[in-house]
Amino acid sequence: MSAASTPPRRPRPVAACLVLALAAAELGSFPLARPSLLGLQGISGAGAVLLAAALLACAAHLWVRPANATTSGAAALVLGLLSYPLANLGGFLIGMFLALLGGSLALAWRKDEGGSEAAPVSVDEAVDAAW
Fold first, then answer.
1. Residue 111, number of CB atoms within 10 A of its CB
2. Which one-letter DSSP state was computed for residue 41?
3. Residue pLDDT, tens place only, 83-103
4. What is the pLDDT of residue 3?
5. Distances in Å between the alpha carbon of 69 and those of 36, 43, 45, 56, 72?
């Protein structure tokens, strides 16, 4: 099989996906340690499980559609901030910080466009192109 017939590599934000999955595991581990007591934990336990599922969905969305990294990253940041009041201080602050870190990594990630850097564009050229 020659190199020309292999499909091009599609880089993915692996670090952001991994950190978001770790945040989901940390947020969901405490309430799901004893599922029989989930009803007694109330809104905090249910909120933690729902936030963990949403963070896991963000990680999966980020893995499947890396071009939409800004959407997944912004959603993960919002979920991380919501975990503080809804899920036992954000999973004892660890889950919240992991969600914020994963969302920040997803927002900062940019797809490699063939390894070549584009020439900088002046402000005048950018304004002319916009009109």
1. 12
2. H
3. 999 887 877 899 999 999 999
4. 55
5. 36, 30, 29, 14, 5
